[in-house]
Each structure stands twice: as C-alpha cells, then as structure tokens.
Amino acid sequence: MKFLALSTSVHRYTNSGIHTGMWLGEFTHFYDVLTEAGHEVTLASVDGGAVPIDPVSLKTPVIQLGGTNKRYEDPEFMDKLEDTPAIADVNLDEYDGIYLIGGHGTLFDFPSEAVSRAVAHFADAGKIVSAVCHGPAGLLDVTLADGTKLLDGRHVTGYSWAEEKLARRTEEVPFSLEEKLRDQAGEYTTAKIPMTKHVVVDGTLITGQNPTSAAGVGEAVLELAV
C-alpha cells in the first residue's frame, strides 16, 4: 500500500523568528514502521520544495531513540526532504491513506484549504487519515462531502497544552491545539503523564498525542492496512 506523509513548510515562528518546522522523529518513526512492513511512504509538504526541520527535534534524547539520528545522517534518506511536491499538486487517488506529521510549524499552515481538501478526500473515500502531535491541526474545520465536519463526534488526541508549557512554546503558538480539538471533536483524551505514548483509533481516523506516539500511530495504521 502507498501512504502520503505531509509536512509543514513553515520554518520560523512569527513572534520570535526562532526556527521551527517538521519534527523529524515523527516522520522517521512512522516511515520505518510502514516501510519495514513493505508499504510505501511518500513525503509531500504544504508549499512544496525543501522541508524545514525543527532543530530541537535533533537534540531531544527521547526522540533520538529509535533511529532519528541514524536517518538524519543518511544522505539518501535526507534527500527525500530536499524537493517535495506541494500537497495541492499531489494525485491523491494514488494513495491509500494520509499521515499528518507534527511540528509546531503545522499550527501555522495546516489549517488551510489545500490541506483540508486533501484530508477530506481521504476521509470521504473511507481511507486512513492519521496524524501525530501538532499534525491534528490539519483535521480542524475539515468539511466532508455530506456537509458534516470530520471531527464531529470523533475520538482524538493531539499535543496537549501541558506539553506546550513543557516545550516553552506557549507564547509562540497561534492557538492551543488541545483547546481546538476539545471544541471540535466528540472526545479529546491525553496520556496521564505528558510526553508519553498515547494513540487513539476511531475507525479509520488515527491520532497520536506527541513525538513518542509516532511509531504507535504507524503500528495502528498497519492494523488497518490490509
């Protein structure tokens, strides 16, 4: 099966100008789980071109476990991030599911017409829609073909405000993802301890709370990829 992984194209916070971008481990962990099981994963981004990497994602020890550094040091793998197609230019019919990679940059460009249209395409076709950490920002305000909202009555998770405080990014982000998900979804849950694995499966909608949940999202996707 073929899966489309989507990254942010935003590389700096608006307020401070500090670098942000895609959280690399959230791509590598999902990628490894899927490809080791024999599936394809293609990377795209909101605007196309080179994908920005949040430098903090290369320094966090818990994320380095599981191969993030190994992948970062692999030129062939990193070439995948150098020239990605824009989501608006991707033939979505070629893929069996979509995975929204996290990173703070997603809060700025995932709530967009192009991303919403892509997510709705997969949801309307009954295909897998998955997201991790800040990636569920791309699930917000998505309207389906029947006029309902994607998150209506659904069970989800995503990066919590407590985790935002731990990351010291409360002054940088444009909104609280937790608050938005609580407002729009049927139920929003988190792990009892911040920054520990928490994955929620609701039909073909799969969400993970934080970077430590990326491999779990991949494993949940595999359960449906039959």
Automatic annotation (TrEMBL):
Entries under Gene3D superfamilies matching the protein: 3.40.50.880
Keyword DNA-binding applies: no
GO MF terms, alphabetically ordered: glyoxalase III activity; transferase activity
Parts forming coiled coils: none
Single biological process term from Gene Ontology: methylglyoxal catabolic process to D-lactate via S-lactoyl-glutathione
Keyword Oxidoreductase: no
GO cellular component, one term: cytoplasm
Residue ranges of domain DJ-1/PfpI in the record: 25-223
Top-level taxon of origin: Bacteria
Keywords (A to Z) from UniProt: Glutamine amidotransferase, Lyase, Stress response, Transferase
InterPro entries in the record: Class_I_gatase-like, DJ-1/PfpI, Prot/Nucl_acid_deglycase
Family to which the UniProt record says this protein belongs: Belongs to the peptidase C56 family. HSP31-like subfamily.
UniProt protein name: Type 1 glutamine amidotransferase domain-containing protein
Organism: Corynebacterium wankanglinii
